[in-house]
Amino acid sequence: MGEFGSFGKVLITIGIIMIVVGAFFLLGNKIPFLGKLPGDVAIQKKNFSFYFPITTCIIISIILSLIMWLLGKK
């Protein structure tokens, strides 16, 4: 039962992560500042546009790291 118990915890963690990511995709465009922060790179030319939300990615990474740290803390 030991191996299956840890496998179950991994599956539950993956499921929670998938729920959070799914909610982010559903609600992401309803958060007004998301993707429009200072530091997000947007370049538009005639036939070319490039957008990389670097500041938004850093903030999301910090939030997810904090959540994972809190979940891993015993």
What separation lies between the terminal Cα atoms? 22 Å
Low-confidence stretches: none
Helix content: 55-70%
* Largest beta sheet: strand ordering: 1-2
Find the structural class using helix and strand composition: mainly alpha
Q: In one word, what is the shape? A: elongated
Count all strands and give the number: 2
Tell me the fraction of residues in β-strands, as a range. Answer: 5-15%
What is the count of distinct domains? 2
- Helix run count: 2
Instruction: Give a quick account of the main beta sheet: strands, pairing sense, barrel closure.
Output: 2 strands, antiparallel
**What order do the helices and strands follow?**
HEEH
Q: Measured on Cα atoms, how large is the radius of gyration?
A: 17 Å
Mean pLDDT reading: 81
Compile the SSE list and pairings.
Blueprint (H helix, E strand, L loop, with lengths): L1 H26 L13 E4 L4 E4 L1 H19 L2
Antiparallel strand pairs: 1-2
What would you note in describing this structure?
The protein is mostly helical. 61% of the residues lie in helices and 11% in strands. Strand 1 and strand 2 form a beta hairpin. The mean pLDDT is 81.
Structure summarized in a few sentences:
The protein is mainly alpha-helical and 74 residues long.
Record keyword descriptors for this entry.
74 residues, mainly alpha, two-stranded antiparallel ribbon, 2 strands, 61% helix, elongated
